[in-house]
Amino acid sequence: MFSCDDKKVEEFEEVKIAFIADAHFQDIYAHFEDADYKGIENPQTGDFVNIRTMNAQLQSTRIFNENYFAFIEALDDIVARGIKLVALPGDFSDDGQPVHVKGLRKILDNYSKDHGILFFATTGNHDPVKPFAQDSGKTDFLGVGGKEQIITSAIGNIKDTVAGQLIPIITSEIKKWGYQDILNEMSAFGFYPQKEYLYWETPFSDYSYEEYTFDTALEASMLGKRTYEIDEFNKHPDASYLVEPTEGVWLLALDANVYVPKKELSGISENANDYEGASIGYNNVLLQKRHLIDWVKNVAKQAEQMNKVLIAFSHYPMVDFNDDASEEMKQFFGEDNMQLHRVPKEEVAELFVDSGIEIHFGGHMHINDTGVRTSAKGNTLFNIQTPSLAAYAPGYKILTIHSKTNFEVETVVIEKAKSFNSLFFLYEQEHDYLKRTQAPEIWNKDILTSENYRDFTQWHLKELVRLRFLPDDWSQEFVAGFIYKTGEELLIAQPEDFDNKLKSANLSINDFKTWTGFDMVYDFYRLRSADELAFTDIGDARLKQYELVCKQLKESENDAYRLWANIFEKSRKGKPSNHFIIDLKQGTIESIAP
After folding, report:
1. What are the distances in angstroms from CA 134 to CA 160, 172, 274?
2. Which of 246, 250, 240, 360 is CA-nearest to residue 305?
3. In the Cβ-directed half-sphere of 242, how many Cα atoms lie within 13 Å?
4. What is the C-alpha separation between 494 and 551, in angstroms, rounded?
């Protein structure tokens, strides 16, 4: 940890770093190099695009198409602010597909060349999906006439065909790349040393800061030298690195991907199907990548000795991201739902904060959140969850380093994105096709009335709740008895002084008649996804109504109602997550009023 003597807290030139997590970039305008297929023509623009169906988007926790425009908007905003350092905490691509990783690299190269921006990426569970390349594809690209179009890297991926189906497209550009290919394509963005870096190392390099040369680092950066054992036969790559992009600031990029074998292996295997995906994150780091903890200790010790500011980032959260409601959520939803298997154990935060990490930026969950943990030794970790550009509320974070102990974090919401609605005409064709063929579940066409990108992501979330979350994660008994009730009906008891409470909150009982339990569930997801950023979308009056309803539900004889009220209230009362100051000297976090 940094000491608090005058030397360590002295002011230095302000440094700004932008964090863009979970961009899930897909190059919708790219054409496949090895297939005679341009995509579908957008008659309103004349462009050919390769996009996923709206139905696919509204069944997924991420947007596949419009986030392309949001990513460009975010980069342009960063340029306008004069920020020169940008970190990408994983899932910069969507499944590491060659066509998309190449498209991303071209865009980042252009912004580097034109605006002098240095990008620093780390791996997420979607890049790479497995440590080694594998054939893959999707059945739900949008094809002509609103039909689904199969695009796959191998004919063997195609299941039984059906009458009227479009002819599948075969291209290697849609396979899932492994570490070697992805890191080669993204080599200029932190994964390998660059001449402009002041310093660069990995958990496996053995030179000191004083001995550092670019050639020495280049030799140590070979991927074959950056592996760890997962069993007696197999080693997997570890893409972690430390970089000093500007004097006095160390960026620690942690590769927390862990691919556990599905079964005991009897020899060397580079078959991707032999390994689980990496979505769990740090809980599995404790099982397979303990070397990272030792490395972090050494890096933090050096940072303190050399008076460097150490900022860590990785794809996965180090702290509970449910506003400490995870235990109640396990009881209410079940341990296998609501992505609760991704919640890091308390041991994760304890180990990493006592290893020397004080500020960590994560992603993965597509949420805006701040988690704070203080260890038994008195060390404090601030875990800052960066929202995704591909989900509500779309945005990125800006870290301003004011001094060695004083940090400002600002969340920039991408309200508008140029051309975000340019694909809507094609979705209308899809919707018409679904109606014509009497599809069982059809998405709400009102999403195509979205006036801006933020509004579009809200519609995405609302449909996701209706089409996926409620059927998959919730007790159907609770749903049937809750979502159709009005707010007034959810007020299970009205004490004698209730009228006075309404008046003091500037509310009337009629306000509670205007919404239902579904609205409350949707707003829970808005709070869970966007935290403080959702307050303006929900509105003060509605939040006050929810507060009164929750207070009443906590008095209910229904165990599920009491649990639900506690979960909702915790989601409403998290740590500052929009614009705030972190004081490492005092171990405090304080909101900056808008």
Report:
1. 21, 10, 11
2. 250
3. 27
4. 11
| Mean per-residue pLDDT over the chain, rounded | 95
Output 554 or 501, whichever has higher pLDDT.
554
Q: Supply the Cα-derived Rg of the chain in whole angstroms.
A: 25
- Tell me the CA end-to-end span of the chain in Å, nearest whole number: 31
Residue 560 is which amino acid?
A: A
Specify the pTM: 0.96
Distances (CA, A) of 209 to 104, 192, 212, 214, 356: 32, 17, 5, 11, 18
* pLDDT-above-90 percentage for the chain: 91
- Long-range contacts of 546-553, Cβ-Cβ distance < 8 Å, separation of 24 or more: 546/520, 546/572, 547/572, 548/491, 548/501, 548/502, 548/505, 548/507, 549/487, 549/490, 549/491, 549/512, 549/520, 552/490, 552/491, 552/492, 552/493, 552/494, 553/490, 553/492
Close Cβ partners of 288 (under 8 Å, ≥ 6 residues apart): 228, 230, 258, 260
Say how many CA atoms lie within 13 Å of 359 toward its Cβ: 27
* Among 550, 555, 552, residue whose Cα is nearest residue 566: 550
Is residue 448 within 8 Å of 428, Cβ to Cβ?
Answer: yes
Alpha carbon distances (Å) from 486 to 240, 478, 491, 528: 51, 15, 9, 22
Q: Which residue blocks in 361-469 are alpha helix, DSSP H?
A: 424-436, 453-464
Contact 90, 22 (CB under 8 A): yes
Rounded to whole angstroms, the Cα distance separating 355 from 339 reads 27
Nearest one of 266, 445, 389 to 20, comparing CA atoms: 389
Q: Within 10 Å of residue 461's Cβ, how many Cβ atoms?
A: 24
pLDDT tier for residue 4 given thresholds of 50, 70 and 90:
very low
Other CB atoms closer than 10 Å to residue 404's CB: what's the count?
21
Fill in the DSSP letter of residue 314: E
CA 4 to centroid of chain Cα atoms:
34
Query: What SS3 state is found at 13?
Result: strand
pLDDT at 1 over 90: no
Q: Which residues neighbour 123 within 8 Å (Cβ) at sequence distance 6 or greater?
A: 90, 179, 182, 239, 255, 257, 315
Find residue 399's DSSP bridge partners: 17, 409
Strands 40-41 and 118-122: unpaired
